[in-house]
Amino acid sequence: MLTVGAIVGWGLLLACLLLYGLCALLVALANAARTEWKLLPVLPAVFACYHLGYGYGFFARNLGLRCAQKARRRAIRPADTAARANRRYPARRMKAPRWRLNTSISV
Predict the structure, then answer these.
(1) Which candidate, 25, 20, 28, 9, places its Cα nearest to that of 52?
(2) What are the pLDDT digits (tens) for 48-97?
């Protein structure tokens, strides 16, 4: 049995999604008219991917979501793993990976 609050909440969510879909379709129509019409079916999905990705990145960075913290820990793990392995097995020295900044980019 649904309560009035649940019905209103789901109704608001549905209204927001429909409004987003309508706006994405209108912007896709405008962009397809300027460029190529064959892009029209794909553009709303591209807009949704951009918005979901940027929104997730924003909230992950500013609110410190747990999965983003795990990803940061995984990113620094190779050197840490090598250090632990060197302490455990001193005869088999592991080399930590070296991260270098590519400065040879020319314009």
Answers:
(1) 20
(2) 999 999 998 888 777 766 665 666 555 555 555 555 655 655 555 556 55
Dump pLDDT digits (tens) for 18-40: 999 999 999 999 999 999 999 99
Q: Contact at 8 Å (CB) between 61 and 68?
A: yes
Tell me the C-alpha distance between 53 and 89, whole Å.
Answer: 42
Closest CA to 81 of 99, 94, 70, 98: 94
* Every domain of the chain and the residues it spans: 13-87
- Residue linked to tokens 């109704």: 11
* Per-residue tokens: 71: 């990803």
